[in-house]
Specification:
The chain has ten helices and seven strands. The chain has 267 residues and is α/β, with parallel strands linked by helices.
Length: 267
């Protein structure tokens, strides 16, 4: 098991009873009808609309804890010293900028389908003096423009839930990684246990949409967020899909009662 620095919690080895309960839960999930995939055009329009307020909203809605989650995820890549990094669903470039500062790579390419988000990111990169390290381009995460075995590491922070085809995206991430390269994926998730699960449901379906509408003036964006979180596969469900996509040695770590989950996988 990989040791992650400053872990919030370590997943205990499940008992036979817990394994049986998890198998039943997975079977129930598999039996449920699949949630409709996000419409790419609607997702682009939504993120272009909220781009100017996206960063402040994220930090406000998470009470600033998302900054800590990002640092932990990036620091888990430090032992591998990646020099070429692809940051998928880069948005406004927060994760790419932090990765450049903490990992000191030669090059980071941030890709996204929202040009409005990347325009904000480009200004941030210039302000940080990192425009000789970080580059942006529009690209589809499920059909990347890069050759096979191009990058030492692929990262995706809080954007995988927006993929219109998650499994295709995972396969593409694996394809563009060099053999032995690493995928770092961190995503918002639903806390698995009482009482945080119930408290978060109330917060995400009442407080989050209200604050989102108040600041961004977009009625749909922060109603979409809890819906996309609920639809995204949780830790135990995503691991076999990563393995099927071609990854090995898949590890995951929950942060802050399971509000966010980090995955580290090797090609």
């Amino acid at each position: 098991m990989i040791h992650y620095p400053e872990q919030d919690s370590i997943e205990p080895t499940p008992s036979k009873k817990q394994k049986k309960a998890e198998a039943k839960r997975t079977a129930r999930v598999a039996a449920q009808p699949a949630s409709p995939a996000p419409d790419p055009e609607k997702v682009v329009a939504m993120f272009n609309s909220i781009a100017p307020t996206y960063d402040s909203l994220n930090h406000s809605l998470s009470l600033g804890i998302d900054r800590r989650w990002r640092r932990k995820a990036i620091d888990a890549l430090k032992p591998f010293a990646p020099q070429t990094i692809l940051d998928i669903a880069t948005g406004t470039g927060d994760f790419a900028i932090l990765a450049a500062q903490r990992l000191d790579p030669d090059r980071i390419i941030g890709v996204d389908i929202s040009e409005g988000m990347m325009a904000v990111g480009s200004e941030k990169v210039k302000t940080a003096g990192l425009d000789n390290v970080i580059y942006f381009m529009k690209d589809d995460s499920t059909d990347l423009s890069f050759d096979d075995e191009t990058f030492d590491a692929v990262t995706v922070a809080y954007g995988a839930r927006n993929f219109h085809d998650l499994d295709a995206g995972l396969r593409e991430m694996c394809r563009v990684l060099i053999p032995g390269g690493h995928l770092m994926l961190v995503e918002l998730t639903t806390p698995p246990r009482f009482p945080m699960k119930q408290l978060f449901h109330i917060y995400s379906h009442t407080v989050m949409p209200f604050i989102g509408r108040l600041i961004s003036h977009n009625d749909s964006a922060y109603t979409y967020l809890p819906q996309s979180m609920s639809a995204f596969p949780q830790a135990e469900e995503l691991k076999p899909r990563l393995l099927k996509a071609g990854f090995s040695d898949v590890q995951f770590q929950r942060f802050t009662f399971g509000l966010s989950t980090m995955y580290l996988a090797t090609k």
